[in-house]
Amino acid sequence: MSYHYYEPESLRRLTEKIFKSYGYSESDAAVITDVMIQADLFGIESHGVQRLKLYTSGIDIGRIRVDAVPEIIKETPVSAVIDAHSCSGQLASMFASETAAKKAKKSGIGMTVVRNSNHYGIAGYYSLWLSRRNLIGLSLTNTWALVLPTYGTKPMMGTNPIAFTVPASPYPFHLDMATSVVTCGKMEVYKKAGKETPRGWALNEDGTVNTDPVRFVENNGKAVGGLLPLGGMGEIYGGHKGYGLSVMVEILTGILAGGLTSDRVTNNTDKGLTSHMIMAIDPALFSEEPQNIFRNLSMYLQDIRNSSRVKDEQKIYIHGEKEFQNEEKVRKQGIAVSDSTLEEIREICKKLGIKENDYLTENIF
Q: ∠ CA 292-297-298 to the nearest 5 degrees?
């Protein structure tokens, strides 16, 4: 599989045009697109424009409702329960982030949970958005069932990412991780590339090791087999800990929001069923000089970078550092789009009557 490299802003313009063609306002199309482009800038191919087919298919079958507006149905000074009414996961989560930020600025903390939503892209987008407003950000979501409980063969949890971002220098501390060994999107990338996946990522329906992403996707449609929790198979490397973290996310999203747990979520429906949690914390709760917290964190992270390394390793990275450095590179080089994803984009454009070449600028090396 080969890749084409496109100037990020040209890919942004095309993606916004696609969503506007589906009826989204200019501002809403920009929000959805920004989440996707940020994923590609960070080098997270699985959640960038590779997801266009997932979102447009969701709109086509009515699972994602273009005209839906998220609504607060229960509220306190520090919390809110939001019904997304099947709107885009990105729009519901930005509404939740804005609500959490307002509450944190007023009361010190803001906690929002969302139900009846859709896939919201990279979890770290929302925690990073909060950190850029001098808040500590936490972002969680469940998904459709993809992940096996320890010793199980039926998926019961989603990949259930946890994203946690705190302002620091030169980069924020930005942890964005699935509670499974790998994301479903990564399996899709391997499927498109026609490559086997590494051992230890997934199991087949009979509990044997799966290295075939095609079989994984087929099994996922039957709700058998699945991805392993963080730590892998069994308990020897801590698989039970990843399993526990994944259930924790289910509690903080689907259960608290009054929505559904991942084993009851499906993509083949005319209603959004995903749940999220967004939390914002104002560090002023803990210090008269919040910048001291960020300054102390920056010093600690630098001490980690400068600490002793194992032989032949050139650098110790802090979470998020690779992503921010990758963004600097991608803005110059262009966003990598695989042949398979490009073909999906062309099919979407053809259906909508869009000439993609009027928008895309390819970088030729």
A: 95
